[in-house]
# Entry
Amino acid sequence: MSELNLPDGDDAVEVPETLTLPLDAWHRARGGRMVEFAGYWMPVQYEGIMAEHLWTRESAGLFDVSHMGQLYLSGEGVEAALEAALPIDLSTLKLGSVRYSLLLDDEGGILDDLMVTRWETGFFLVVNGATKWDDIGTLRELLPDEVTINHLDDSALLALQGPNAAAALERHVTGETPLSALTFMKGASFKLGGVDAWISRSGYTGEDGFEIAIPADSAAQIAELLCREPEVKPIGLGARDSLRLEAGLPLYGHDLSPETSPIEADLLFGINKRRRTEGGFPGAVRIQRELAQGAPRKRVGLALEGRQAAREGAKVMLGDEELGFLTSGGFSPTLQRPIAMAYVAAAHAAEGTALEIEVRGKRLSATVVPMPFVPHRYHR
Amino acid sequence: MTRYFSEEHEWIEIEGDLGTVGITDYAQGQLGDITFVELPEVGAAVGKGDSVSVVDSVKAASDVYTPVSGTIAETNAALADEPELVNTQAETGGWLFRITLSASDELGSLMDETAYKAFIDSL
# Structure
């Protein structure tokens, strides 16, 4: 054990306390192994990452993602103001529809990736847990005083993901529209187990599934209700990470950062078409330049030979030339082989390019492959 | 035959001047699903505490340190196709390597099973 050397006296720095989420006791009672993540205690696994991962792909898994930030933006001029803040085209976002967007700095670096949903009188945003406080500050600066940012911190967020998610959830919801009417990236209000819930058909696993916003004080009751269904088991952060990696979905703070642009990150779909030409959002100059001239490097998927995994930070090499580095990597439970995401020089980013990854002084052979690694099975 | 344990969660079973080394059941439980094991080279001379092997799990890669000095005599070939043996049979069929001890007095610094149990209970 290394000792923590904290300065004392006037120099003392405040170490933020790890916070608990509404389902903390529920996770512990279910045998979740709790770790610190994004400032909260969260379950990394219950029975084991491999089993939980495969269960989600073949049946349904319940994820607690209550650490994420849920924001509600409303007020006069909110639509135009949000378009000035994000590279999104809200004119094509229908009521209840969900869209992926990006919060960019003035240089086009990615401050966060997020989901934007149109509600009756404003917009519902779901942002990453580790970045939510900074996001609120950034948005506050970008948005005029007339726009109110309401942090819905009394709302929990669950994700039910997998081919059997719809069947399990359907037994407990009532609403104006049937759950089956929701297609991928659409949401609506429902009663779930008697509780008011905003449910969208979306997620972070590549599977069909739902994200469910409910009052925090009902979270344990709803989690229990869903996990009593034979198709559903609780799933930890470990499998959430391996599932999203197989689905080719980037993880903020790893695959995306202020050092990466959306073009480099291959997230052009996060810059809506009208906005690419019109601009008028933070970082537009760089985005338009990279659209015209190409970006110097690109996020790619890599399939590795053998069974040894390579992880974040490992160098991508071609002979003596350093081409880039891994931002995510691990063993794919579905494919039973190691996979990775990396940023590599654009000249070596084409599918089929053979590269090497340096792992602990050894070279592992890898090939640039298209993402997702495991096909998406969204309900479109 | 005598079995010793290290604070880094390796076990070593001694038979004459040959030791069989693996990671403990406690260690495999902490690491989770093991997907790959990098084994040392047979014939390599290693010193107590050297990182000689790497156990890869879905979660992370972890070093395995040799609890004694000596020469690597054999490695567990079964792990190439079945790395999960380290999960299912950590302290038997999931052994990693055999080592010819060069300094058997090093065993004195290791724990016996009772002491190791007390050690992991204290973690």
